[in-house]
Design a protein that fits this description.
Blueprint lengths: L9 H16 L4 E8 L14 E7 L11 H11 L12 H11 L5 E7 L6 H12 L5 E5 L5 E8 L1 H6 L4 H13 L1 E8 L2 E7 L9 H4 L3 E3 L5 E3 L4 E8 L5 E2 L2 E10 L4 H15 L6 E7 L1 H7 L4
Antiparallel strand pairs: 1-2, 3-12, 3-13, 4-12, 5-10, 6-7, 8-9, 11-12
C-alpha cells in the first residue's frame, strides 16, 4: 500500500501504478497482481488519489525458489519498488482494512498529533515527530502532508454581478456546469444506468487564465466571461482534514520491522520526550495495532 505526496495527477498516479504492477508480476512467486488508485463512489472509502491499494496473490509455497521465505520476498519486492516520492507499506488485505476501520492507521503502529487551540498546525508537529522517529532502530516513519491540497477559488463580485442582472447562483451554476461538469441525463443499458456529464474540454479549463474566459449567459441574452463578475485564483490548503475527539489531528505512519510494538513505543516515547518540545495546545498519542495491545493488558 504505497503512499505518494498529495497533489499527484491521475495520469502520473496511473503510470506509477502500472509500473509497480509490472515489477511485482516479474517475481516468480507471484500469481496475480491487482492495483487500484483513487477513491470509489462510496462515502465510506475516503482514500485520496495519492494512496495506492495493490493486492498480490502468491503461488503455493512449493512453487517458490529454494530458500525463499515470506520475509525475504517482501524485502526483495520493497527493494525493487523504491520510487521517488512513494512510501511503501506492506500488510495483509484484511488486516489493513480492519486497522483502518478500527484505528484510522494503516500501519501496525502510528502517532497522532492533535491541536487544542486555534492557529496551531498539527502537520508541523507531525513532521518533527517523523524526523525524530526516523533515527529510531526498527522503524521507518513519514508524516501526512495535510497542507498540500490544490484549490481553485471563485470569489463572486456581487455588485458587478448585479449590474448584469446575475445572482450568486447564476455564477455558481456556470462554474458547476462548465468547469466541474453537470449530469444532463442518464444512459440506460439493460439494467445499468450511466450518467452523461457535460463540461468544457480540458483545453478550456486547464489553467486559471482559461477558466477566467468561461462564459455566463445574462438575462439580456448576452454572454460575458466569468472574470467580469468573479475573481478566480489558485491556492493551497488541506488535502484532507482529520480529527480525533473533535480536535484537528495529523498522522505519522510508522512501518516497523519488529513485532515488539510495546518495546518500540517505550523507546520512541523516551526519545520524543528528549528531542521533541511540544508547545502549548498540542498533545500526541500512539495508535494502530498498539492500541489492541494496551486493551489486552487492561491499560486501554
Amino acid at each position: 500500500m504505497p503512499t505518494a505526496l498529495p497533489g499527484i495527477s491521475i495520469t502520473q498516479a496511473s503510470q506509477l501504478l502500472q509500473e509497480q504492477d509490472r515489477i511485482l508480476r516479474s517475481f516468480p512467486e507471484v500469481e496475480t497482481v491487482f492495483g487500484a488508485v483513487g477513491r470509489s463512489d462510496s462515502a465510506t472509502d475516503n482514500a485520496p488519489l495519492d494512496m495506492y491499494d495493490t493486492t498480490v496473490m502468491l503461488r503455493p509455497r512449493e512453487k517458490w525458489p529454494p530458500g525463499m521465505t515470506y520475509e525475504k520476498l517482501i524485502r526483495a519486492m520493497d527493494e525493487k519498488l523504491q520510487f521517488p516520492g512513494l512510501t511503501n507499506t506492506w500488510t495483509m488485505p484484511v488486516q489493513n482494512r480492519l486497522d483502518m476501520a478500527l484505528t484510522g492507521i494503516k500501519d501496525a503502529c502510528g502517532h497522532e498529533a492533535s491541536r487544542h487551540k486555534p492557529g496551531a498546525n498539527p502537520a508541523t508537529r507531525g513532521a518533527g515527530t517523523a524526523d525524530s522517529l526516523g533515527v529510531t532502530a526498527g522503524a521507518f516513519s513519514f508524516a501526512e502532508r495535510v497542507s498540500q491540497g490544490f484549490y481553485i477559488n471563485v470569489e463572486v463580485n456581487r455588485p458587478e454581478a448585479a449590474k448584469y442582472g446575475l445572482t450568486i447562483a447564476d455564477v455558481q451554476q456556470a462554474v458547476e456546469s462548465g468547469i466541474g461538469g453537470m449530469n444532463v441525463c442518464r444512459k440506460r443499458r439493460r439494467r445499468s444506468r450511466y450518467p452523461i456529464n457535460v463540461r468544457y474540454q480540458r483545453d478550456f479549463r486547464d489553467n486559471v487564465g482559461e477558466l477566467s474566459r468561461v462564459l455566463i449567459a445574462t438575462p439580456s441574452g448576452a454572454q460575458i466571461p466569468i472574470s467580469e463578475v468573479a475573481k478566480i485564483s489558485f491556492s493551497r490548503g488541506p488535502a484532507m482534514i482529520r480529527d480525533e475527539d473533535g480536535q484537528l489531528t495529523g498522522y505519522v505512519y510508522i512501518d516497523l520491522n519488529t513485532t515488539d510494538y510495546g518495546g518500540f513505543v517505550d523507546q520512541a516515547s523516551n526519545m520524543l520526550r528528549q528531542k521533541l518540545q511540544l508547545p502549548a495546545g498540542y498533545t500526541y498519542q500512539w495508535s494502530g495495532e498498539y492500541e489492541f495491545q494496551l486493551r489486552g493488558e487492561g491499560n486501554g
